[in-house]
User: Fold these one by one.
Assistant:
Number 1:
Amino acid sequence: MLFNKPSDMTYREWLYSDARYLMNQIPKNVVEWVYEEDMTDQEKAAHPTYETTGGYLKVLDN
């Protein structure tokens, strides 16, 4: 299974694949999940979908 789809790719093939290399180049510190209980009133007003999702994805300044 790869991305929940049947695949003949082995774990070793994945480790050495271009796809894995490219995914590892994506910055990981550009967003963070903020849970509803950690949101300020201003954040709740700005992101009303928090009621459905339980929070929002905050874009970090880097």
Number 2:
Amino acid sequence: MWALNQLEYPFLVVTGADHNETNTRLGEVYELLGPDVKMVIGDYLSIPQCLHNKACVESNDKPLGIPPHKLFIFDGFGQDVGHPLGRKWHLTFYPQEEKNYTYLGLTIEHYCHKFGVVPAQERSNKIYILGKDRSYLHAPSPTLYPETMWQSLANKTGVQFTIGTQQKEKLKGLDSRALEPKDQLFDGIIDIGSQARDQFIYELQHHKAVIGLGWPVQPSTALEALCVGTPFINRKL
């Protein structure tokens, strides 16, 4: 969006409380604008869902819906999350010509540089786990680390592991023993909940490191962490 602003291209942003709501609204907006819309870019969840949503995508039932060839997936690290027309409809951070993705690139300087670098000695003894949903800790997501590792490391080193997930607010007040497996948190991890963007960057500034779970799809968090001087650890890209 920053690049579109710089080039003075018009664009619209459609948001919703969930992807079904977002896609329904997206279909409504497209129906109003139609041919004037050249591209529709969404994340790795919303675009696949739009392609299966009769209120969003062009079909016999909705002739004024969005044609599939105008739908592009923002797939930052090139994880091939699936577009029926192939990888050319995946926009990536990094050039991967051999895999036939469309290289878009990424810039974060205009945003993260306003925060600066906090000296290591002024940071809290915390490591941030990159993941917005607790299900990322459980199969079928790649599970690179044993679930007992976090508490064991915390006990031995005194470091505190934090994560910021949507479940923090959604499941507030529920007995942890009654949660579905995908919503459970491992011992040794503290959920600080989803953060507004500026607050999130502040957290990155004041943690000792950020650790990835091994399968990033679109987040720029790894680069934002490095921009504010916070090491990013990830076993797999």
Number 3:
Amino acid sequence: TSTIVIKIVDDVPRAESDSTTVVEGGTVTGNVLDNDTLGADGAAQGGAVVGVRAGSDTSTSAIGSLGVSIAGTYGTLILNANGEAIYKADPNS
């Protein structure tokens, strides 16, 4: 008689905060997934980012609005499903 014990350790995805600086009227680019842990299963088919929105409303879903310009208080953001981001700061903001 034999006993086999298998322990599976499945790491979970973990999002980390992202921040950078930009001058008035300037543009900054980067990838919001670069410092995240995607977990054992990797990114979802079609990309790891599923949505974005401006503001602090958490009562509705943020799914969607990828690849389009989102206006914020101090500039505009374009975020793609693969995590690539472009932020353009407004002049004089």
